[in-house]
Each structure stands twice: as structure tokens, then as C-alpha cells.
Amino acid sequence: MTVALEIAVTSPAGAVVARDGGADRVELCVGLELGGLTPSQALVEATHETGIPAHALVRCRPGGFVHDADEVDLMVREVTSVLRSGAAGVVVGALRPDRTLDVDALRRFVDAARSVRATAEVTLHRAVDHAVDPVAAVALLADLGFTRVLTSGGATTAAAGAATISRMVSAAGPVQVMSGAGVTPYDVPALVGTGVAAVHLSAKRSAGSAHEGVPMGTGDDGSAHFVTDASVVAAARAALDA
Q: Which of 59, 147, 155, 179 could form a disulfide with 191 if both were Cys (CB 3.0 to 4.6 A apart)?
């Protein structure tokens, strides 16, 4: 089985680096340092023009994954918007307060995606790693219409969660399992050994553009933003091809 390489990017430039480094697709978001948020229509359009399949994260705010009715309504609209703007798929997720999957919200996201394009791919994001039982959660995804799930096996990093990821692969049936979280090229062989269909990493480096002075918000410490590192993408591709 050929294992796919997915790179998380935040710009068309990052998508080009991922494409030229041998990635099969990208996950597109903004606010990567916040866990990722929904990209704008223009960002999706510009990334689509790079030619690499882009799967847009749909997450309307940072924080947890328990969403109220208004947030779900907004994300349903975001699902349709990013797909109409050229995204090849969407990356979504929602939990109930008891940390089980919010299947009603997830069905709405899947239905919205397929109403735009029958072939749209739908990925469950790492909300699954906050579920009370990630293995039981993935067993539900085929019936909900999901294409794949991104997971660290409920651990801080995918490497640490490898044993659980392997169990998730067994439970997922036709749904593809993609390992991600803190992945380096060094981790790739062990993750491939779990049986995953894809490996996901951000392959990021600091852009060195920190600012000083007045903070721009409570989460702003003046740190530099991140960009996609071509050498990390190439190393991950080489590790998969070895």
C-alpha cells in the first residue's frame, strides 16, 4: 500500500513548497499555532490555483470541540464555501459534552460537503483525540460518510500514540486513518508500520518575523509566524519512499 503524505500549510506559498517536495495533498488553514482555523475564500482559491489538492480545515474558533447550534450552522456554511472555492475536501469535527462524537453535527457537515460535490472528501480532525474512546469513535465514521480521520492516537504526538493508532486502523474499516501531531521525518517508518493510509505533518519553521511592542491580543507574544520548510517536506517524502 502506498502511504500518502499530507502537509499542513497556511498559504499558497506553503502549498507550492509541499507540492514541489512531493506531498500528495495539503491541509489548508490559518492560525496553525491555535490548532488551525477556517481559511478565507481568497486563500482557498489561491491555494487551489497551485494545483495540489487542498483540504480546508473548517473550525470556526479556537478552543475545544463542543459547538453550539450557531457555531454548527456557521461551519455548515463554511463547508459549502470552501468547497465552492476549490477545496478538494474538508476537515471537520465536533464532540458532545460527554466527549463522544457529535454525530448530528458531523452528519450535517458531511451532507453539506456532498451537496456541493459528490466526490468531496471529508476528514475528521483531531477532535477524535479528545474523545473518551478514540477507537470506538472511528468505528462510527464509515456510517457517517467520512473518507478519513486524522489522529495522534489520543496522545500528545503520533509517535507516542502509535499503539492506539494501530488499533484505530483495525476499527476504522474502509475509513482511511492518517497519523499526525508532532511528526518528524524520523517518525515516519514507525507510523507507516501502524498501517496508516497517510502521514500528516506541518513541516514548519520559524519565518523569523517576530515583532516587538504592543501586543495584538492576549495570545500574541510577538513570536514569529511559521512557514513550510522545503527540507522537512523532502525528508518526509524520502522516508515514505524508502
A: 179
